[in-house]
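Memo to structure team: turn this sequence into structure tokens by end of day. - J.P.
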Amino acid sequence: MLSKNQYEDRNRCFILGTGPSLAQIDLESLKNEITIGVNSILLVDVFSSDADSIHKRKLIPNVLVMGDTLHIQEIFDLIFIPEMKDSDYVLCGGCKMDTCDKSTGSTCYLPPQLLEHINIFNHHNNNVRFVYHNEKSGWHNHLADGTELPFEKSTEFVRENFYIDDDLNTFSTYGGGVINDLAFSTAAYLGFKKIYLLGCDGGFDHLVETGRHHIDTRIGYNIRKYGAERPNVHYGVLREKLNKRGIEVFNCSPTNVHSDLEYRDYKEIINEESN
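Reply from structure team:
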């Protein structure tokens, strides 16, 4: 089970998104690093030494983070696997707000049967931590006066309302995606002072989804509605909040599309450590 400042002696970690640029990364070079993977990262083919089997991998992340309960339901059988017994999960366990939609299919609802399956797995491995969605305002898609919040929120709104829970009990969804909302909070909780991003390409499409039927059922819908580039990603605000905690964040994704973050070549970072 994860504990606060568990990896503070390691100083740095790599957060692995699932963007198409991950195919350009030699993941074998990260085998001695601490890695935090998100969503369907375990399904990415470049993890496999045998392309026909997702159960033969070059690298298993130390932590798997998922903030979307609907996606947890979709790929449950593919992420709760024996190879993850020595790694940890940080999962959204639902919502703390009475104003949130907890109906079946909501991203803040874990069906009792699914929760039971997860708890059985956790009983054997003790490696699942639930974190709960909660906004400081007590509201999510609407404000108290009934005003509907747009999907693409202003930088000022996010700066004022997004937060990082230093005890990793709750999280805000105003950051713009699971990396901002939950992976950064996990890295901060574990004591890392330098965070490097890989496979974070600023779009909805994922490497594991490319050329396939979408495993995440909302990818196609989001691309049609918002376009290929994901709106509402506030790395600049997240960088500010992390910097106040003495944490630096860098983008190592080959696409280098995030102007809010300093770019570093991941090969140089790894070589610095080995030298």
